Amino acid sequence: MTTFLLATNSVHVTAAAADYLQKRLDPADDDDIVVVAVRDPDAPSRDAGDAVNVARSRLASFMPATETKDGEPVTEILAAIDEHDPDELLIGPHRGTDDSEGVGSTAQEILARVDRPVIVLPLP
């Protein structure tokens, strides 16, 4: 059994994660998917809720557990890692907005601080 933790606050990141997971998982397997959407004070307030809705819809056959957290993204993602102890972490390279490029500060800090595989999802 593998536990995947998707940390998101963007429908774009969540859609990319769904594409990645749907190609990789079999609904008959005993894998777990936990989606943690973080409401970043600097992002539009509905983004995290929309990201959870995309996860529920696109990953329905895998029955993901979903959570929405308020706070600073790195702090909330690290807390979710401690709580769920995932085998693999999925994150976006940046906030997922059209004007973002490269790997953002949240992704960089997560990559520097975690001790497990991290998939940085390509965005369309």
UniProtKB/TrEMBL annotation:
It holds the Pfam family Usp. Residues 85-105 are annotated as: Disordered. Residues 45-122 form the UspA domain. InterPro entries: Rossmann-like_a/b/a_fold, UspA. Coiled coil: none annotated. Gene3D superfamilies: HUPs. This is Universal stress protein.
